[in-house]
Amino acid sequence: MFIKQSARWLVLGLSFAPSELIAATDWETCSPQTDSPPQAALNVLRPPDLDKNAIYIEADQALFREQGYSELVGGVYIAQQDAQLQAQQAQFNRTSGDIIAQGKVKLTTAQLQVNSATIHYNLQNGTGRINDLVYLLSDAEGRGSSRRLIQETPQRIHLEDASYTTCPPTINTWQLQADKITLDRETDTGTARNVTFEIADTPVFYLPYFSFPLSKQRKSGFLTPSIGTDEKSGLRLSLPYYFNIAPNYDLTVTTNLLSKRGIQAQSEFRYLQEKHSGRIQYDILPSDQNLDNSLRYYFALNHFSQLGDHTALSLEAEGVSDIDYLNDLSSSLEASSTVNLERTLRYTHQNDPWTFTALAQSYQVLDKDSETYARLPQLSASWKTPSDAHDLKLSAHGEYTYFSNSQADNGHRFDIQAGISQRFANSYAYIEPSLKLRSTHYELERNQNTSISRHLPTVSIDTGLFFERELQQGNTVQTLEPRIYYTFTPYRNQADIPVFDSANLTPSYSRLFSDNRFAGADRIADTNRLSTSLTTRLQDVKQGREILRASIGQMYYFDDYKVTLPDESIAADARSEIVLELAGQLNTATQVSGTAFLDAHDGRLLANQMRLNYKDKKQRILNLGYGHHKNDYEAVQFSFATPFRDHWTLLGTYEHDLENNRLLETLAGIEYQSCCWRGRLVNRKYLLSDNKTYDDAIFAEFELKGLGNFGSSTRNLLENRIYGYE
Fold first, then answer.
1. How crowded is residue 331: how many other Cβ atoms within 10 Å of its Cβ?
2. Among 333, 368, 592, 599, which residue's Cβ finds the most Cβ atoms within 10 Å?
3. Cα dist. 622→582, 656, 725 in Å?
């Protein structure tokens, strides 16, 4: 044997000078700069250009025996492949790889870091036994302590009388205390038995068995529970469980305990394949205590299949057990006011220049006064010249539909359109004349079968100019774009044609340049009008951002409208209202948009909509909205999310009907978020679909990060009600 003083980098008994040695440093979970701990801290550090299978030894003193046994004292450092050990002293068997280390021992592998007073470890097979330790996982941001650690394999570790948390050291906001914890890196799963959940070192509840993920990959297990209350269902306790069936399949089952109604089960199955994807949702309340113990359910199906390079199939369907289900059991303001649930099967084949579509569409009617026609079926074919082929554009469209409605006329409709247009343009001007021919035929099932045909041409001319100038030393460009649009369609009496799917187009700036004021094929407006408009834009050349766009336009009628929808009346006027439109991205955080309609004679405001959206890098959010339409609607909207201090965020929404002086919706909440947990408390009050009563709901939620969080109803609610919230 021999003793070597101040030995440095002894490799199989040979001495090397240190070379760019960087000591591994401790790290804390929840680093403010990154979501994951620095991986370099867990990599084995070794001198360059040496065999990775060699054993590296560093110590102040070393005693080497012929049998391969070594005693190391002072500043001990031993490393091989993916493991490194630091201690005050160690006994090392170079033949078997066994190490017994004492005195402030730190063991670092690719999987974890362990600190203890004594460690038994084998470098060759990556196994060991450690007592009274603290540990830190490499990529799960998990840590804890244990009375005993047994490393069965490099990938599988058993902890006895152990704790686990993802909170930073010295801050045990929450932790698991368990008789036994197994960490299996091959399955990326942690399991615990006889588990007590503690919050602020106070036991909260007990589970005999619990599993959790060791990384941010999806993992089967319980998701974030939530508790809340509302007027319709009473106290609500929701406990979701997530099944990670396969990388491309998963299932979430949520059990809801409703104090006024009973137990409700909700399930959502998702699938994703190379050419198929979809989602199936089924909710069931077997016995509604608030409705004579009735069975109540809801289902939704969304499916998409790419059958070939040019062919696709989609299916969307919804249904409920009764017409009051959504109003009673949905927390969505939009869902509770739904009048029809759509069921649509669509087949599409698109191979330029042709597009073929086959569709079957029906509805479950929730409001008998709002029954919509079913289309059983609708077949269509379209053809058009490629957009980049030349300036001459040809198009054709044919469609057959059978419309069915239990409360109105049923019938067949055949609709054919053909169009031709030619665009002449240069850098500052364009003109585009066009001609359309439309022929529609009906076979109606009235008291006696009725045939109706209608044939109409439409001509239009669209022309405009384009000017621009540089501002602010060329950083900003302003444009000026005048436009004139003329369209003519002769009058045909259409009073005997049923209205299957036609409706007035929503008033907008783009409607100025539409050749028909109706959507659908059942009404073609008689038109002889001229539209004029002027648009100016401010564009940031360097950022490629449209700072502001402002437009003004108006229509001039040479003849009064005669074609109307049933029970519709139109006042004769030579001019339409003046339309103003404004939109822009004022800076990286602020967006504005608005549309206004002014009376052409006295400038009186008839209707308008305005929105301002603000979101900066500090996640401060402010949304303002205002809407007004003549004398039947006026409302304001306001929502915000503002962080304050560290980790805290205030949330809120407010919507008020000014016309009827009533509250539509209000939401107020507070959220706390740190790296290891998040909590929310939200109160929401909103007007129900009967426009008379309100539902007042309170939601409380507590998320323990690192135990598998994949979504929650409260978060979805906030994302829907506060634009920009994530």
1. 20
2. 333
3. 19, 17, 10
